[in-house]
Amino acid sequence: MTTTWAPVPAGSGFGVENLPYGVFRPVDGAARVGVRIGDHVLDLAAALGDPVFATPSLNGLLARGRTEWSRVRAEIVALLTDPARETDGAAALHPLTEVTLHLPFEVADYVDFYASEHHATNLGRMFRPDSAALLPNWKHLPVGYHGRAGTVVPSGTPVVRPAGQRKAPSDDAPVFGPSGRLDIETELGFVVGAPTTLGSSIGTGDFAEHVFGVCVVNDWSARDIQAWEYVPLGPFLGKSFATSISPWIVPLEALEAARVVVPTQDPVPLPHLREIEKWGLDIVFEVELNGVQISRPPYAQMYWSPAQMLAHMTSNGASLRTGDLFASGTVSGPERDQRGSLIELTWNGTEPLRLADGSERTFLSDGDVVTISATAPGPNGTRIDLGEVTGRIAPTPS
Ligand code: CA
């Protein structure tokens, strides 16, 4: 573990190896950019004197690109590891208990993929039991859709149960009302920094030039609304009411020790989706419902890598904007306790979960709290903590 003068509790996943970025507001000032070290946040505007950090968004830093991201990170590491700079640096530290955390960046466009073979297979088996679990395109391209950027909210934002139209196959006609099948989706989000021009595309090898870092995503999903509306154009109101993200963006550089090869892809993808430098990531999530752990989805088993997702989403010449967010799709592993959504954990509501208080859940009840956290291996036996994304379900307004 690299030594720092800053206070880092033993076993913390927020050591000098991590240094995730966020936007915080101290009790006596405006919201601005900081990095987390231990249980403190370092005020970067105060510590480094660069006005790009005196804004309530990471977008200014994101737009600068990879060379500058690396330079800034090295500057922060130098500050935190030089004993001679403790006095100045410590003056820029705020305890997390004394700050409010905000949405870390202005979300430009938001895309959501469907990259877990286990998740796609589980849903295919539930919804199309009489045909192949995976649709014919699934192993040729990372399937995705465009979501609603304006309803991406920071961790802690209450999630109001959406009302919508639904119709079960056995119903004669649709009805409108509060969703009865409100669900979670455990996902990893990728934050785009460096933009591109319209008409250009990005190869799989240029992933790290454009993607700044990652966050934890909960793609709240109303399964009954989704099931009635999604044919033929895909998810719409069953997803767009809220997508929660964690407050800390972990830079790709903190995840070097977590890189693994993605599972073998058969058939071999078309040339524009082939990858030399693999971007599998050994990140493990923990999902808690009302304080009880219900799943531990492993990211390492995802079929499509984020570099392939990025190459695919720009392969038609669509441009990237600073602040674009693309999410992986629900992360599910092969085991029952590795499934990243309630619809899989309860097998479409037929196998309820039993919670610590003796109650059962198929989908979410009003007042339920879901918290998703994630960790990854860091350099030299350390641990990188991605933090958590949490949300409480609020009732549909009457
Ligand atoms: Ca999703």
From TrEMBL:
Pathway(s) served: Amino-acid degradation; L-phenylalanine degradation; acetoacetate and fumarate from L-phenylalanine: step 6/6
Chain residue ranges for the region called Disordered: 156-176
Fumarylacetoacetase N-terminal domain span: 17-104
Binding site for substrate: Y114, R128, Q226, Y230, T330
Official protein name in the record: fumarylacetoacetase
Residues bound to Ca(2+): D112, E185, E187, D219
GO-annotated molecular function: fumarylacetoacetase activity; metal ion binding
Entries under Pfam families matching the protein: FAA_hydrolase, FAA_hydrolase_N
GO annotation, biological process: homogentisate catabolic process; L-phenylalanine catabolic process; L-tyrosine catabolic process
Catalytic residue positions: H119 (proton acceptor)
Native source species: Tsukamurella pseudospumae
Coiled coil location: none
Keyword Hydrolase annotated: yes
Keywords: Calcium, Hydrolase, Magnesium, Metal-binding, Phenylalanine catabolism, Tyrosine catabolism
Ranges where the Fumarylacetoacetase-like C-terminal domain occurs: 111-384
E.C. number(s) listed in UniProt: 3.7.1.2
Cofactor(s) named in the record: Ca(2+); Mg(2+)
Binding, Mg(2+): D219, K239, T243
